[in-house]
C-alpha cells in the first residue's frame, strides 16, 4: 500500500494523502474530507464512510447499499471543481465535484454539490438522503450547541 497512488487524484501516495485520514487523522478541510470519502469508496472502506458522515445521520445510513456500491464499482476518477468555506461557528462548506465509476450498468459520472460541517476539529459530510426529524428550534444535529434554524437548517 505504501507505493499506491491515492485514488482521489492528488498524485500523492495514498499513505501521504487520504490514507492519513482513513487511519484517524482529522481531515483539515471539507475538500480533503470529500477526497478521502471518494478514496474510501474506491478502497471499500465502509466504516470510514459511515464515521465521516454527520454523527446524527450515521445510524440511518444503509451500510449494505454503501458496501454494494463501493465494492461493485470500479472507481475511475474524481474532479473537484470548487471548495467554498462558509465563515461562522461551526464552519460549513460546500464542495462541488464529479465522480466517475463503472459498474455492471456501464460507465457513470455524478456531479454533486455536497455540504459539510466542522465541529470539534472534525469535518463531517451532511448526507442529503438521510432525513432528520427536526424542528427549527431543536438543537442542531451537528452538536454545535446552536438551534437547528441558526446552524445547519439550510444544508438539509
Give an account of the 3D structure.
The protein has 156 residues and is α+β, with helices and mostly antiparallel strands. It has a single domain (14-128), classed as Nuclear Transport Factor 2, Chain: A. Helices cover 24% and strands 29% of the residues. The protein is built from five helices and four strands. It has helices at residues 18-22, 30-43, 46-51, 55-58, 63-71; strands at residues 74-86, 91-103, 106-119, 122-126. Strands 1-2-3-4 form a four-stranded antiparallel sheet, with helices on one face. Strand 1 (74-86) and strand 2 (91-103) form a beta hairpin. The chain is globular, with a radius of gyration of 16 Å. It starts with 17 loop residues before the first helix and ends in a 30-residue tail after the last strand. The relative contact order is 0.15.
